[in-house]
Design brief:
2 domains; alpha/beta; Rossmann fold; 6-stranded mixed beta sheet; globular; single chain
Length: about 230
Amino acid sequence: MPRIPCLALIAPKGCGVAELLVIRHGQASFGAADYDVLSDLGRAQARAAGAWLRTMGWTPDRVITGTLNRQIDTAAEMGFDPQREEHAGLNEYDFGDLLEARLKGELPEPVHGDRKAHFRILRETVFAWQKDEIENPAETWSKFADRVEAARAFAVDTDAKRVLVISSGGVIGQMTARSLHAPAQHMMNLNLQIKNAAMTRFMFSGSLFSLNEFNATPHFATPEGATLMSYS
């Protein structure tokens, strides 16, 4: 029987390396008073991701989320059995605080309801944050980067071969950029590409930690599944 390469899309459990599968939460409630609530579409996206993984015979040995409701509820909708763990390092950066700090509370009206305007201004704001150009943010860029790395280290400090993490776009962008030794700005360029419930996979073993795939949505690769696609 031919040997399956350890860096296959779905690595066999007998492989010497382990998998860290990081999934962005399902669609939250953009523009609502409480963003941190999954929409009905977000719940459907999470169920589709869980169903696809089970179809592929992939079940996690360990499940970790941040402490945000949209991450916790995405994990619940995916429906896997392992006891869920939490690490606050997987929480998204506070984009509301950054916008308020940079714009001194004078937010342009489009920020509240126009997605394109919101993300254009957010991109500029994160670049300023990374350069320490925003006064008194609730969290500095360096602290964000450090806690994401602490969460990654926590996730891979395990004997588990399949680790499922539910997090957010900024964290996934940072984790991916760091794995590629890319410049800090690359984090935001990646962040803005990440689809809701998209899968980013890393392989790890000892000091090895490498990107295997980024922002994949095989669970949406049907005419019916395509209707579930969203970015925010």
